[in-house]
From TrEMBL:
Taxonomic path: Eukaryota, Viridiplantae, Streptophyta, Embryophyta, Tracheophyta
Cellular localization per UniProt: Cytoplasm
Substrates-to-products reaction catalysed: (2R)-2-phosphoglycerate = (2R)-3-phosphoglycerate
CDD domains: iPGM
SUPFAM superfamilies assigned: 2,3-Bisphosphoglycerate-independent phosphoglycerate mutase, substrate-binding domain, Alkaline phosphatase-like
Pathway noted in the entry: Carbohydrate degradation; glycolysis; pyruvate from D-glyceraldehyde 3-phosphate: step 3/5
Residue intervals of the Metalloenzyme domain: 22-544
GO molecular function per UniProt: manganese ion binding; phosphoglycerate mutase activity
Descriptive protein name: 2,3-bisphosphoglycerate-independent phosphoglycerate mutase
């Protein structure tokens, strides 16, 4: 609970009363996009969410949930549940992803952290392997970060280093991989002059080797595993530049889809298979295309392909790639240190809090909401309830998930009179949206809408206030599109399904019988984002937010 000597007391809001019960609903993966047949939220029967939008225009708006609004480097970075809930709970924007890595490298903190200390235990006797995208695109990785990691690792005792490169051509120009390989080979040559045995060990194109996502095609990861771990690939070369130039000269070749290759010594032996005792770091900072390789490297129990040989390694990611799966369990760069979250302030100011979701998003509505912090701020003031998610099936099989159960727990908490804030995450739009099953996602959106109704009905009964929002988009657009927004087709003429999050804004709606007359969304914050929600909620609880919080989205008009 709050630090000693720090004043946690929030001033009262001059125009808004304290003590109202607030139902705070986060719809996961629920963005706002054009209405067409690939917008599952539009297609689904969602009368409750529709009514919030059509009801009072001054009490419904969109907020940004991607890119710089949630601390990610660029406006091309999709939001995700971790950074989204960080922003919703913290009320301020904290650096995430690449920015965190930059800071950790610049300060040298990366080499003092638990993750690096763990992989360092292999340096005396074994090899350090670095696997990732060789690119300066800044979307998944950056070459300058790799070069700093190489330099730092060698200065901290790595005697033998092998780099497993994936060529880009997607976030950067096709063909740029040759220049990147020359820069990398140049730095590795300098390390060799200093007595470090450093060289490229394998490679391949990102879309054909290693970097699949959302369990779309495990054969992509297997091709990487075979080259990186087993030292087996259809092509063998003496160095990476020669490999990339030669393979690019084949008809229809491009960086994204280069076939896997291994680098061999003069006797034809691969120079860098991963063996027992080695250390492995995946150096991409963006998570979505690292989760699958992380599973293959970390999980003892793994059945997605035959790994043939499973070396006992020390593995760490650049960052933790999945907060739900806690994967990987070791990572070089810690998530942002987020202090003074809205949850801590409100608990300190007498707001009793109930938070609930099912397993896949329970951590988001608690741990990530509270600034990457486990447990209660005050167990006498808070209650967190986790409903077990369905296991052993994909979520499109049971698209309703636990939405009703979550809503019923929230309803009971609201009606109990024990809590002033009842906070839930309804995961359906996101978890079912990731499966790419459009019909199931439509069912999922309807189920989430029905859950919202259960909670809003309870708020109505106790004279409370509701805040309904989302953490990022997903279910509102289920098809890949070209630059003009038209759906992309595959070779057979079928639409290409989009299973990922999106760059779309998300709605926020306020209302309920407890909402003071004259409360409306301000017109002067058009670029408001998720981080503005915390101050908004504090106001609705009857408090003014701390001065360094992103400004509240609401104002109170004099009637």
């Amino acid at each position: 609970m709050g630090g000693s000597g720090f004043d946690w007391k929030l001033p009262h809001h001059p125009k808004l009363p304290k003590g109202k019960v607030i139902g705070l609903i986060v719809l996961d993966g629920w963005g706002e996009a054009n209405a067409d047949q690939y917008n599952c939220i539009h297609v689904a029967e969602t009368p409750v969410m529709d009514s919030l939008k059509k009801g009072a225009p001054e009490r419904w708006r969109l907020v940004r949930a991607h890119g710089t609004a949630v601390g990610l480097p660029t406006e091309d970075d999709m939001g995700n549940s971790e950074v989204g809930h960080n922003a919703l709970g913290a009320g301020r924007i904290f650096a995430q992803g690449a920015k965190l890595v930059d800071a950790a490298l610049a300060s040298g903190k990366i080499f003092e952290g638990e993750g690096f200390k763990y992989v360092k235990e292999s340096f005396a006797t074994n090899t350090l392997h670095l696997i990732g995208l060789m690119s300066d695109g800044g979307v998944h990785s950056r070459l300058d970060q790799l070069l700093l990691l190489l330099k730092g690792a060698s200065e901290h005792g790595a005697k033998k280093i092998r780099v497993h490169v994936l060529t880009d051509g997607r976030d950067v120009l096709d063909g740029s991989s040759v220049g990147f390989a020359e820069i990398l080979e140049n730095d590795l040559a300098k390390l060799r002059e200093k007595g470090v045995d450093a060289q490229v060990a394998s490679g391949g194109g990102r879309m054909y080797v290693t970097m699949d996502r959302y369990e779309n095609d495990w054969s992509v990861v297997k091709r990487g595993w075979d080259a990186q771990v087993l030292g087996e690939a259809p092509y063998k070369f003496k160095n990476a530049v020669e490999a990339i130039k030669t393979l690019r000269a084949e008809p229809n070749a491009n960086d994204q889809y280069l076939p896997p290759f291994v680098i061999v010594d003069d006797s034809g032996k691969p120079v860098g298979p991963i063996v027992d005792g080695d250390a492995v770091v995946t150096f991409n900072f963006r998570a979505d295309r690292m989760v699958m390789i992380a599973k293959a490297l970390e999980y003892a129990d793994f059945d997605k392909f035959d790994r043939v040989r499973v070396p006992k390694i020390r593995y760490a990611g650049m960052l933790q790639y999945d907060g739900e799966l806690k994967l990987p369990s070791r990572y070089l760069v810690e998530p942002p240190e987020i202090d003074r979250t809205s949850g801590e302030y409100l608990t300190y100011n007498g707001v009793r809090t109930f938070a609930c979701s099912e397993t896949v998003k329970f951590g988001h509505v608690t741990f990530f909401w509270n600034g990457n912090r486990s447990g209660y701020f005050n167990d006498k003031m808070e209650e967190y309830v986790e409903i077990p998610s369905d296991s052993g099936i994909t979520f499109n099989v049971q698209p309703k998930m636990k939405a009703v159960e979550i809503a019923e727990k929230a309803r009971d908490a609201i009606l109990s009179g024990k809590f002033e804030q009842v906070r839930v995450n309804l995961p359906n739009g996101d978890m079912v949206g990731h499966t790419g099953d459009i019909e199931a996602t439509i069912v999922a959106c309807k189920a989430a809408d029905e859950a919202v109704k259960i909670i809003l009905d309870a708020i109505e009964r106790v004279g409370g206030i509701y805040v309904v929002t989302a953490d990022h988009g997903n279910a509102e657009d289920m098809v890949k599109r070209n630059k003009t927004g038209q759906p992309l087709l595959d070779k057979s003429g079928n639409i290409q399904i989009l299973t990922s999050h999106t760059l779309q804004p998300v709605p926020i709606a306020i209302g309920g019988p407890g909402l003071a007359p004259g409360v409306r969304f301000r017109k002067d914050l058009p670029s408001g984002g998720l981080a503005n929600v915390a101050a908004t909620v504090m106001n609705l609880h009857g408090f003014q937010a701390p001065s360094d919080y992103e400004p509240s989205l609401i104002e109170v008009a004099d009637n």
